[in-house]
Every structure is written in structure tokens, then in C-alpha cells.
Amino acid sequence: MEFRTSVASAFAALVLASSVATLQPVLPVEAKAPIWSNNIKVPYRSWLPTQRPKEILLCVHGLGFSSLSYTEFGHVMASRGYGVYALDVRGFGEWMDKRENRVDFEGCLGDIEAALKTLRKNYPGCKIDLVGESMGGAIVLAAASRNPQLVDGIISSVPSSDRYAKMSSTLIVGAKWLTNKDKPMNIEAEVVERATENKQLQKKMASNPENRMKLTPKELKQFNDFMKGNYDAAALIEKTPVLLMAGFKDKLVKPEGTVELFNSITTDDKLLMVVGDGEHLLLEENQLTEQLTDLLITWLNHKH
């Protein structure tokens, strides 16, 4: 019943969305990297309106991707008046060129906490929301559960750990672990081919040098262990408004898993939206639709 009510509420919210948007000029993407945490420069990108932002959206990407995957999302939301920042999760994006090039979820959560504090200082009185997709969706749930006083809202797309072909993937990682846990293995088939049926988009994601499609069994085990903590993080979100999303045609993460995770979130200020024609990616890699944009903005405007 909770699931049905939430979906109905989502479609009702869509009706409320304005059909005419006021677009604003967008500043060029910033190239500098601020010192956000322990004197470590955290790579990030930003898309900002020329006027003071309505709200700030801090985005976290999915497994294998980087902050670059939010380029279209950033431009679109900045043109609607929102300030958009996206950081690279440790082990991905520009982290691949650094000494600290291994996946590190605890380090990433520390980066996000420091980023939230910096953004609050730079934008006094401005609401700050976390946005994440897939792995990034799980990361923002964990970050918000640890820092509720720093987060005004959460948009989490397909954050569930309940994946298709999960058993076979676990067996493969286990076998590789026994052979050499530090030898990178290719995850392209698992991530790219299951993320979308669009061959052109598959090719683009696979060939993007900013994406990292080879991880060690040790890193993949860390990823799986982190994703399993989703339910604990969800239960700790007691007041922060949450918008959870899933793609009905997702071939990587089961929509049912997102529904179960939604029911684990403690706050009553939560909304679940299942996109009927949506695949795994709803926000990243140029998959944001105009209809979904209107819905996101409606939710941002009406959340408590």
C-alpha cells in the first residue's frame, strides 16, 4: 500500500509541475578544486546560474563513472536556477591520476561531509540537497544518515543492492579474489551493457577515458559490502525529505529492491517514483528527460 500511494503521489506531483520553465544563463564549469578535506584536493565540477542559486544540489555518480556523467543534469538544473556540484568518488574520475586511486567509501563520505560544510559556509541560508544515482544513490543515503543537520533533501536514484545476476557476479568476484584480489577485472559487461540497451550510449560510456571499468576483486568486495549497508542507512534517515527513484525497465538493479529500501526509510516525508520507460540511468549520461526535470523541481519546491 505504501508503494502504491507513493507512486500515485509522484504522478500527482507531475501534474503540478509547470509546463513553462524560466531558463537562466549558466556560468562555465569551474576547473579549480577546493580543499574540502584534510588538505586533500577533491576533484569536482560545478554548473552555476549567474544569479544566487535557489538551492544547491551536491551530486554523486554511479559505479565506474565520474562527476562528468552529470554534465547535462548540471546544465539543465543550473538553467532552472539551481547550483549544481558533482564530486568524484575516491577511486574514480580524476582520482585515477592520483596516488590515492583506490576505491574508498569512508574517505568519500568524509569528502561529502566536508563539502556540505563548505557549501553551507559559501551559501548561507541556501538549502542544500544530496543527489545520487546507483552507487551514488547509496552513498548519499549513507552521507545523509550521518549528517542530517547538513542536508535539506535527498534525491536517490536506484540505490538498491538487489541486482540481476547477483549470484553469478559474486561467484566471479570470489574466484578472482582467490586468484589475485589486487588484479583488476573488467566490469564493462556488468555496468555498461546492463545500464542501457542503447548501443550508441554503451559505446560512449565504454570509450570515455573518465570512466573506470576495471576494478580489483578487493574493491568490488568493498563495493558490495558498502551497498549491503543501505538498509541500515535508510533506517537512520528520520526527518530529511527523500525522493527515491527506480526505472521499471532497469536491467541492472531490480526495482523491487528499491521499493524494499523505500519501506526501510524511517521518515514519513518520503516519495517513491517508478519511471515506466526508465532504464538504470535516470539522471546521468544525458538521460534526464524534460518530464523528469519538471518532477524533480516540483518535488524540490514542495518538500518540507
Characterise the protein shown here.
By secondary structure, this protein is an alpha/beta fold. It has one domain: Alpha/Beta hydrolase fold, catalytic domain (Rossmann fold, 3-Layer(aba) Sandwich). The chain is built from eleven helices and eleven strands. The chain has helices at residues 2-16, 71-79, 105-122, 135-146, 166-180, 188-195, 199-207, 217-228, 230-235, 255-264, 290-302; strands spanning 35-37, 40-41, 44-47, 55-60, 83-87, 127-133, 153-157, 185-186, 214-215, 242-247, 270-275. The protein has a seven-stranded mixed beta sheet with strand order 3-5-4-6-7-10-11, with helices on both faces. It has a two-stranded antiparallel sheet with strand order 1-2. It has a two-stranded antiparallel ribbon with strand order 8-9. The chain is globular. Residues 1-20 and 167-175 have low confidence and may be disordered.
Number of helices: 11
The fold-level CATH name is Rossmann fold
Beta-strand percentage range: 15-25%
Q: What is the strand arrangement across the widest sheet?
A: 3-5-4-6-7-10-11
CATH architecture, by name, is 3-Layer(aba) Sandwich
- Biggest pleated sheet: 7 strands, mixed
Instruction: Name the CATH superfamily assignment.
Output: Alpha/Beta hydrolase fold, catalytic domain
| Helix/strand structural class | alpha/beta
The unreliable regions are: 1-20, 167-175
Average residue pLDDT: 84
Count of structural domains = 1
SS elements, strand count: 11
From the N-terminal CA to the C-terminal CA, the straight-line distance is 22 Å
Helix content: 40-55%
The top-level CATH class is Alpha Beta
- As a whole number of angstroms, the C-alpha radius of gyration is 18 Å
> Which series of helices and strands comes N to C?
HEEEEHEHEHEHEHHEHHEHEH
Morphology: globular
